Amino acid sequence: MTPTTERTVTHSTFTIRRHYTAKPDRVFAAFADPEKKRRWFAPRDSRDLGSYEMDFRVGGTERSASRMKEGTPFPGAELVNQTTYQDIVPDARIVMAYTMAMDGRRFSASLATIAFVPTGDGTDLVFTEQGAYFEGSDGPRLREQGWTKILEKLDGELAG
Length: 160
Prior knowledge:
It is built from 3 helices and 7 strands, in the order βααββββββα. It is α+β, with helices and mostly antiparallel strands. It has a domain at 12-45 and 84-159: START domain (Alpha-D-Glucose-1,6-Bisphosphate, Chain A, domain 4, 2-Layer Sandwich). A 7-stranded antiparallel β-sheet has the order 1-7-6-5-4-3-2. The termini are far apart.
């Protein structure tokens, strides 16, 4: 008799709020323009980017593939992020559904909403993710930490 692998899924929702001194149109453009987004979104410290494609429109897709570097928990593993844009309201909102897979095994599926709220001195960005994290995944706590780091990198793009 062979052992069975228990199939599990963890559901979670988290929200990250960040303030940027740039106006909503500039913050939105950092998500909408493929070259700008690649500069701040693509991993550099823990992964080598292999490919990045983006078609920013409702129904359009974004796909990145990267390899984990030596010194990471999974050196040499390929990490693929596949996104489909569900709703786009210029300078106000992006809704996207995305999956993540490592070495061909999908480990999560998420729906994320990014709201760009104008303030007197810039933009409040509100990122909300509703995720399903499968067995062996990074889980909601690590995913929230990852997005927090990614959104911190956006500061550099907006400063330039």
